[in-house]
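Marked as duplicate of an earlier ticket. Keeping the data here for the record.
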Amino acid sequence: MAKIQRLATKEDGIVVVHNPVNEEELNDRKEQYKLLSDKKFAFRYNHMLFLPIEFNWNGNTHKIQYNFCTNPFCKWCGQEQVKFDSVKGKPSRYKLEGGGKNSQKKLRCNPDPINPTTGMTLNCSPMTVSNWSVAEEISRLVRINQTKDVEPEYNFHKDSCVVGHLTPFDTPSEFYKQGKTLNNAQRWQCKVCKKKTSILPNKRQSTTYRQKKNDILPMFAKLLLNKMPISRTCDILEIGVGTYYHKLEWLYRCCLEFLEKYETTPLTNKTFKEMWLNTDKMHYNLNNVRKKGQGGQKYFGLEDSQVQTYVVVSSDTVSRYVFRSDVAYDWEMTVEDLKLDTAVYKEDHLNDFSKKNNRLDFSYYPQEPTESDTQTPHEYRIEFNEFKKRMQYVDGLHVNPTYTTMAHFWLIKQMVQAGEWRMISDNDASIMTAFFRVFSKEVRMSDAHHFLCLLDKNKSRKQCLEEFEDAKSDLLDWGFHRGYETKNLRKLAYSYLKELLETHQFHNEIQTPTHSYNDWAKNPITHPLASRDKGFHKVDCTTDLSSLEPKEIAKLIMNVNDNATNSFIQQIRRRLSILERPLMTARGDGKSYIYANFNPKYAQYALTILRTFYNFCETYKSADGKELTPAQRLGITAKVFDLKDIIYLR
């Protein structure tokens, strides 16, 4: 039987990222830091741009390198950097450019000097990312979603015992059984020194080890998932705030153990021919409560700024199963860690793509300018004051959502075995670039396609309902005049799209004197099926569909909608008090985030609890009339679970 679990920590080394900077380079950085200007110093270590980063996880070694072209229509899409030594001047596939003050460096796609008439390079300019930082973000997301066995150190003997090396696990005949403890754990007694020792119970023996007021957990979970504020929950259950957060962490750990058994393991043994992934971002604002000791007149006015935090959500479009929901925030990162990394790697003088902590909103600890530095003392003081101001709020640091999304997609790709991928998102640059980097091989081989679901969010409810009614009548009228006997709206919509796509293209075909090539046309179409709450939405495809027949493209477009993530995000807003939409103040002069939480760690806990409940306990009725949970529709479980199944892992 499984052992008692605890949340994983950095010290467990679940993901081991190989340090790409060796001892020789560290010494060189230390020496050159005082001699070179910040620009020359950064240029000296630009080799980090295309350096693959290795890390170990689950006994396997993985390698990532995401600095390449991300335009699916460019011939260099997903291709690694290459130097063409056989060509005069020895040009490279990419060149580095930009990076002026306060701007990020970009790659630029160079023309192909070997086969200029095969395909076309489109002069793309993708942003650079830090491969090292992506690996660190993958490590963080793995760690916060994993538990480890509690391994206590036992001493079964007195110091003078002659059989002090024996344990009841190996030689039970050398010990007496002395009954069970209140936690139903076995108590052993050494036959020689007579010392009695109680061992840790396993989960079958006790699900409440070191857990007081265990009987309130089901009610606690119901209150949490029904938008009950923290203070009201404490009043109802007659507990303190400290106990509330202890129970929240306990319930979070129960969900992780449940997901390991009923999500991770079944998905390992299941293969999907085609996976429709729908990804969206939700943002909320933290409560700007100053840390203890940061009050008084000296810190007046610090609450005025809003600290925005992002949540990345990915669901299966067909079953609405939510694979991941990750908060872009690293609550384990401390100022001391950042200060140490800055001192060791000299990150304040490196380009962004060379930094270990480029994923964080403060990627380095501000350092006083060196003699050769281009930064002035005044600029340094401004930068340092901004850093100090941020540190007076909640512990930890925000993560750039692009890095969280890349790590998010990488982990989904490892978890879900699919032959082909279909991605749906809105026109969010961070989601699109993350998808094209992580699924670059599949995009290049036309095994992955990305669709845009474009909504007009300025419509009123009345307009949306009118469009919904118009869509039905227009389709039925079109079908009647075209001679279709069916009145099934989905069948009519498919036929309508199939005819439309005989002439409509999502790409432009560009002719040159020597050959032709395709490019994204940014030419969306209006989906013939409207919804009651959103009205019509437009659909576009950012990948090359030119090899598919109109009927195949029409079949794909029929599945393009954002209902899966919208449904879950609505549940977040309606069920979790700390993540609800802001309220209007009594004066009507602004928004109040009074129920927002102080620490994004607890937002991650609550999201995971809600995701588990939503996937395995909440049923919904689909067009086929069946009342099933998303997990049942995905095919990884055959029953509907309840909260007690999750809490007690029954």
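See parent ticket for discussion. Residues 157-198 form one domain.
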